[in-house]
Design brief:
GO molecular function, one term: oxidoreductase activity, acting on paired donors, with incorporation or reduction of molecular oxygen
Cofactor: heme
Structural class: mainly alpha
Family: Belongs to the cytochrome P450 family.
Number of helices: 11
Helix content: 55-70%
Shape: globular
Pathway: Secondary metabolite biosynthesis
Strand content: 5-15%
Number of strands: 4
Oligomer: single chain
InterPro entries: Cyt_P450, Cyt_P450_sf, Cytochrome_P450_monoxygenase
Distance between the termini: 17 Å
Order of helices and strands: HHHHHHHHHHHEEEE
């Protein structure tokens, strides 16, 4: 995905930037920014959950059917918008992502082929021009239309604001351009949204299929928190049964399925078989 972004837009994101110094600086600042923002996440979660409860109560009163995966992904989309951009992102952008998700699953093997051939100088030029021509005719890839700065101007605690030195603690990311910022933040958003929404759906699927395990989880939550307002991320991470439910769902239905290509340099042995230098190999992510 990162390589495709690089070919399409001509911009290196963190995982494809060949400048080691710049890569480390951006990575360090983003990690630092995320850590500094952790204390705000609980408030964001509660804000979104406070909006969910009345909606669920209304649907229950009207005996409406609930599309749980879509409902969970919609709530997650709002939460990620708050965390990354400082405000919720529009539903139209979410619909574009949801429409393209099945399409991406279909073309993913071809994207892997593109990344292989893009290493060949002559072929790389042709692929790059074709990809950018395709991007120019595709609304979703018109990255200039996806501008989070309205949200950045309303907050001093978003990752975007932190990266652009809007937060006083950060002084070392001033070289990053608006396009670089948008690309990196979009990658964060898409990666977090797709994987987490799929994980949430699988967790609820397994729990709803097994009322006994769901009852055990409820007992653990009620025993740990006397009030809903007391629930926080730090305490939730300490609950063994909740962690077990999450880990088991991730094992049975992993949200990420794909491969990373790597060129062996120098040669190495894999399971007793020697792979010479320069060979491109891949392994499953999960």
């Amino acid at each position: 995905m990162a390589k495709v972004f690089n070919i399409t837009f001509g911009i290196d994101i963190m995982s494809t930037n060949p400048d080691t110094v710049h890569h480390q600086k951006v990575r360090k600042n983003i990690n630092s920014g995320l850590l500094k923002l952790r204390h705000n996440e609980d408030a964001i979660y509660k804000l979104c959950l406070d909006q969910i409860d009345p909606q669920l109560e209304r649907m229950r009163a009207n005996s409406e059917d609930l599309d749980l995966p879509n409902y969970l992904s919609g709530s997650l989309w709002k939460i990620l918008g708050h965390i990354i951009f400082g405000e919720p992102i529009g539903e139209e952008e979410k619909k574009q992502v949801d429409v393209l998700t099945p399409w991406f699953s279909t073309v993913a093997p071809y994207l892997e082929v593109i990344t292989i051939f893009s290493a060949i100088p002559g072929v790389q030029l042709i692929i790059t021009r074709l990809m950018r021509l395709f991007a120019s005719f595709t609304q979703f890839f018109d990255i200039s239309q996806f501008n989070p700065y309205a949200g950045i101007q309303r907050t001093t605690t978003s990752v975007a604001n932190y990266m652009t030195s809007g937060v006083s603690e950060n002084k070392s990311c001033r070289e990053i351009t608006e396009m670089e910022l948008n690309i990196n933040l979009c990658v964060f958003l898409l990666a977090a949204y797709e994987t987490t929404s799929m994980a949430l759906s699988s967790i609820f699927y397994f729990l709803l299929k097994d009322p006994i395990q769901l009852s055990k989880l409820r007992k653990e939550l009620h025993a740990s928190f006397e009030d809903v307002q007391a629930i926080n991320d730090k305490e939730l991470m300490q609950l063994p049964f909740l962690s077990g439910c999450i880990n088991e769902a991730l094992r049975l239905l992993p949200p990420v399925s794909g491969r990373f290509l790597a060129r062996t340099s120098p040669g190495l042995y894999v399971d007793g078989i020697y792979v010479p230098k320069g060979v491109s190999g891949s392994s499953e992510l999960i």
